[in-house]
Amino acid sequence: MKAASKYSTLEMVLLVLIGLPIGLLFSNLDLFWPGAGFKTKNRQGWLAFFLSLLVWGGILYISVIVF
């Protein structure tokens, strides 16, 4: 049942909010890629990665414009 396993809503929120900064801090973005056979988790990981880029890019953009 590896293909059907998925992240919970809380795990997805945490991946989006703190996954990218922690991944960049430790120079390891493997937390977005759980491995072979996890089709749903792999898709969710990529979605979390791109949403995280949007969220942190928006935060950076707004902070540059305001300050």
Task: Explain how this protein is built.
This protein has helices spanning 9-25, 39-66. The chain is mainly alpha-helical and 67 residues long. The protein has one domain. Helix 1 (9-25) crosses helix 2 (39-66).
- The Cα radius of gyration reads 13 Å
Q: What string gives the helices and strands in order? A: HH
Number of domain modules: 1
Q: Residue share in helices?
A: 55-70%
Q: What gap, in angstroms, lies between the N and C termini?
A: 49 Å
Shape: elongated
Chain-averaged pLDDT: 88
SS field, number of helical segments: 2
Q: What are the low-pLDDT stretches, counting only 5+ consecutive residues below 50?
A: none
Helix/strand structural class: mainly alpha
As a percent range, the share of strand residues is under 5%
Count of β-strands: 0
Query: Could you give a short account of the major beta sheet?
Result: none
Short structural summary:
The protein has about 70 residues and is mainly α.
Structural key phrases:
67 residues; mainly alpha
Helix and strand topology:
Layout: H1 9-25, H2 39-66
Helix pairs in contact: 1-2
